[in-house]
Amino acid sequence: MTDAGGGPAQGAGAEVAAAGSPPSARVGVIVGSTRTNRICPEIARLVQEHLSGGSPLSYTLVDLAEIDLPFLDEPAKPALGRYAHDHTRSWSRLISSFGAFVLVFPQYNWGYPAPLKNALDFLYAEWRDKPAALVTYGTRGGRKAADQIRTVLQGLHMRIIKTTAEIRISADDVDAEGQLTDAKELLADYVNTLKKIDTELAHALAPAPQSTP
Q: Measured between alpha carbons, how far is 111 from 109 in angstroms, rounded to an integer?
């Protein structure tokens, strides 16, 4: 995991990364693909950089490949919060330390990656009422994957912000190994969209105004 300042947050201390920021101002940028030869971490890192520039919020990368959750193995349903396994309790602490999330993930066959759904399904209350933004990518941008996962996030009672970044990647954008030839240039077209996402997240996380008697 890496915080917005670029420093790594390792091991048991990961869930307290960027501890100088209150939980309400901390946003987890979830790297939603775990496959080998993936481009998701590079895209997520640039998304984090663009979101962080001039933002009142603190953005931290959360790489599901590093978290390495097994397929859901809790005996009780997550809504009960009675976790039997250390990996679930650690995941719960980490997710509880954030006030909002940006999900960065590819579109697979018009859907989202299974490890991302698995990571969401491990918990319940920890996601509830937290704002969520979507950054998808694929040859068509990933709109169908975004539409599908919105239903899941609604089931978790998350607050999905209006703006979504749908990054289109053509055959000209990748090399023979499937890696991006110039990720910075690719993301340059989406900077304004990402800034809008940051603004909407900051608004969603702002304290409600106090009513005067």
A: 5
Q: Is residue 168 part of a domain?
A: yes
Which domain does 76 fall in, by range?
Answer: 22-205
Calpha distance 70→108 (Å, rounded): 20
The terminus-to-terminus CA distance of the chain in angstroms comes to 45
- How far apart (Å, rounded) are the C-alpha atoms in residues 83 and 76? 7
Give residue-wise pLDDT tens across range 34-83: 999 999 999 999 999 999 999 999 999 999 999 999 999 999 999 999 99
Residue 211 lies in a domain: no
CA 8 distance to own-chain centroid? 17
Per-residue burial over 26-41, b = 16 or more CB atoms within 10 Å of its CB, e = otherwise: bbbbbbbbbeeebbbb
Q: How many domains does the chain have?
A: 1
Residues making up the chain, counted from first to last? 213
In a domain, 192, yes or no: yes
Q: The pTM is what?
A: 0.89
Collapsed DSSP state (helix, strand, coil) of residue 50: helix
CATH number at residue 94: 3.40.50.360
